[in-house]
Amino acid sequence: MTARVEEAAVTRTHSRTHNRKQLEESLPAPFSLRCGAMLIDYIILVGIVAFSTLIARMLGGGARTAASSAETVGIMIAISVSVLNLGLLAGFTGRTLGKWATGLRVQRTNGAKPGVGRAFLRHFIGYPLSFLTLGFGFLLAALSTRGRALHDLIADTIVVREG
């Protein structure tokens, strides 16, 4: 009985030490790379809306309903891609398309993957709050020692370089 308790304590201590060591080895992402990753993510979304608007304008003229439908479809596709990229993909893998392209990953502060709920909290609650502070929420990443922005503090996450 005592051996099992001691073994569990050693395993728990080793696990905590390993997680701390893993966190110390992973470097916080540079602010410029984080900005680049976010720019890539938003270029994808804006590109979808711009493409649908272009199609709507080409249909133009007497086809007002077709043009309106094209814009609506484009917005719906952009919202779907946003949910897939910023919510599901980020939750399951820790990466958005922009973070994948720049070699970054979102993880919990304990080193675990963020999970879908935390990714939704980070991107759909934390990002708007970071914008509402006139961008200061994003600037926190450049000013803090661990490189955490307001949305990272809200969701208990950190962005690290893939190594």
In terms of topology, how is this protein built?
Blueprint: H1 2-25, H2 31-59, H3 64-93, H4 97-102, E1 104-108, H5 116-132, H6 136-143, H7 150-155, E2 157-161
Antiparallel strand pairs: 1-2
Description of the structure:
With 163 residues, the chain is mainly α. The protein has one domain (29-161). Helix content is 74%, strand content 6%. It has a two-stranded antiparallel sheet. The chain is elongated. The relative contact order is 0.14. The model has no long low-confidence stretch (mean pLDDT 85).
Summarize the structure.
This protein is mainly alpha-helical. The protein has 7 helices and 2 strands. The protein has helices at 2-25, 31-59, 64-93, 97-102, 116-132, 136-143, 150-155; strands spanning 104-108, 157-161.
Low-confidence stretches: none
Overall domain count:
1
Question: Looking across the biggest beta sheet, what order are the strands in?
Answer: 1-2
Q: Strand tally, please?
A: 2
In whole angstroms, the N-to-C terminal distance is 41 Å
Q: Compute the gyration radius: what is it? A: 21 Å
Number of helices: 7
Shape: elongated
Portion of residues in helices?
over 70%
Question: What structural class do the secondary elements suggest?
Answer: mainly alpha
Q: Strand-and-helix sequence, N→C? A: HHHHEHHHE
Strand content bin = 5-15%
Mean pLDDT figure:
85
Sheet with the most strands? 2 strands, antiparallel
